[in-house]
């Protein structure tokens, strides 16, 4: 292997269930971006939401990735071991008045703003102090009319109005769990990730995570959002849409299909080979410009 570039990518599944084809595509896209540049590829387990996690899912994910021939660099980072760091960051943001306690429930926000269920935009009712006295509060970030812009490697220039998109979003839930935006924003930056490659279903998370990094004076990575895998009825593959778990015994077939999904053109003979040959071919022939924008 040539000397490594400074590229560092990552794959960061949540242990809410087994990996499906959509997860495989995301893992493969990030792996190929890293390995084709002689970079590092880190594995992180985003296990900060125990109520949503499934027993045994982490082991299952690690075993499946291994069985598909993924080789990660360094040791696996578990977000559940990072709670002290998240708390410290939260404390800093509270002291800087960049975050504040909020007493609003989801229901009261919907009522007050006239929004319907789904994505809620929080217009900052508690910015000057929580409206109600509670024993526990959620903690929100103050978004100060920020526009977040970045140049996505596949989708091109992106621009988001945080205030309009989600308003002051949650950093810590009332039940004490830290939000995905806070944890991933911190870890991506502090693990020295140079490019986050993931499904476009997470495109709307990127501006919030970049904003978290900015408020904490951390350097943001580059972003690259891959097309989303849909099932026959047009739904995104996910645990909610009952996506089929990927099986190691089908690894060659699924790696091949995943390459095709990413717009690559593996020859049909590769289907009769093994994981190693597919990876060799894929790393040597990876052309990110072939990945569809849709
Ligand atoms: Zn509030």
Description of the structure:
The structure is a single chain. With about 290 residues, the protein is of the alpha/beta class. It has 2 domains: about 10-80 and about 225-290, HUPs (Rossmann fold, 3-Layer(aba) Sandwich), CATH 3.40.50; about 85-180, Glutamyl-tRNA Synthetase, domain 3 (Alpha-Beta Complex). It has 9 helices and 10 strands. It has helices at about 20-35, 55-65, 85-95, 105-115, 160-165, 180-190, 205-215, 250-260, 275-285, and strands at about 10, 40-45, 75-80, 100, 140, 145-150, 155-160, 170, 195-200, 220-225. Strands 1-2-3 form a 3-stranded parallel sheet, with helices on one face. Strands 4-5-8 form a 3-stranded antiparallel sheet. The protein has a two-stranded antiparallel sheet with strand order 6-7. α7 (about 205-215) links the parallel β9 (about 195-200) and β10. α8 runs parallel beside α9 (about 275-285). It starts with 7 loop residues before the first strand and ends in a 9-residue tail after the last helix. Bound molecules: zinc ion. Zinc ion binds near residues 102, 103, 125, 126 and 131.
């Amino acid at each position: 292997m040539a000397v490594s570039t400074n590229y560092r990518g990552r794959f960061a599944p949540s242990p809410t269930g087994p990996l499906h084809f959509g997860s495989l595509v995301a893992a493969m896209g990030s792996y190929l971006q890293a390995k084709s540049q002689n970079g590092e590829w880190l594995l992180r387990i985003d296990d900060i939401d125990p109520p949503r996690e499934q027993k045994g899912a982490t082991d299952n994910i690690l075993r499946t990735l291994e069985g598909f021939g993924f080789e990660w660099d360094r040791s696996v980072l578990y977000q559940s071991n990072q709670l002290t760091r998240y708390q410290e960051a939260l404390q800093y943001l509270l002291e800087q008045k960049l975050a504040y306690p909020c007493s609003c429930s989801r229901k009261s926000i919907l009522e007050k703003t006239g929004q319907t269920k789904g994505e809620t935009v929080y217009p900052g009712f508690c910015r000057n102090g929580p409206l109600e006295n509670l024993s526990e509060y959620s903690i929100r970030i103050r978004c100060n009319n920020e526009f977040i812009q970045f140049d996505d490697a596949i989708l091109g220039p992106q621009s988001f109005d945080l205030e309009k998109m989600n308003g002051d979003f949650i950093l810590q839930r009332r039940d004490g769990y830290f939000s995905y935006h806070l944890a991933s924003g911190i870890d991506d930056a502090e693990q020295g990730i140079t490019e986050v490659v993931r499904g476009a279903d997470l495109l709307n998370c990127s501006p919030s995570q970049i904003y978290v990094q900015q408020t904490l004076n951390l350097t943001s990575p580059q972003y690259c959002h891959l097309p989303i895998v849909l099932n026959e009825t047009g739904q995104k593959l996910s645990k909610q849409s009952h996506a089929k778990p990927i099986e190691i015994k089908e690894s060659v077939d699924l790696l091949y299909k995943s390459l095709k999904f990413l717009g690559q053109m593996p020859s049909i003979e590769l289907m009769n080979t093994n994981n190693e040959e597919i990876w060799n071919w894929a790393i040597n022939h990876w052309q990110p410009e072939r990945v569809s924008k849709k």
